[in-house]
Amino acid sequence: MDPIALLPFIVLIGAMFLMTRSAKKKQRQAAEMRDSMQPGTGVRTIGGMYAVVKEIRDDAVLLELEPGVHALFAKNAIGAVLPDDEFDRIVNAGESESLDVDVPDDASALTRDEDDTPADEKIELGKKDADDDSEGEADAAEDAKTAKADTDSSDTKRDGDSGSK
Fold first, then answer.
1. Which terminus of the chain is more exposed, N or C, with fewer CB under 10 A?
2. What is the pTM of this model?
3. What value, to the nearest 5°, has the Cα angle with vertex 148 and ends 143 and 149?
């Protein structure tokens, strides 16, 4: 057999070897990263949630999302173990700004206008001027005539045989 004919197969096998080698290397690094977790370490899950490790089990990790809020995650769901300074920078970034929002206790505050007048007052929805009314009717009649003429002409165009009607 010709050695040049075997060259594509040798290249294919070499590429597969290199790809599996790099994948195994990444898996090994991820396992080492997960093994370096200790209680109190800040982590980011693969879903983008930041939490503090509270307890490490065989295949799972108990995370504290907020003080008093715990969740159990699979070890494979941990995307990154973060250094303490980076975790603090990310989690406490917006905490220095206090939000001054007034949240109403009930929906009655939402139904009032800006000047505290109740929204129960009726709003007049009718037309205001009689002149505007007569002009509007004339415009509507004109629009109806042009629409009827357009539909009649489109009917004759669709028939294809304009002389048969």
1. N
2. 0.46
3. 100
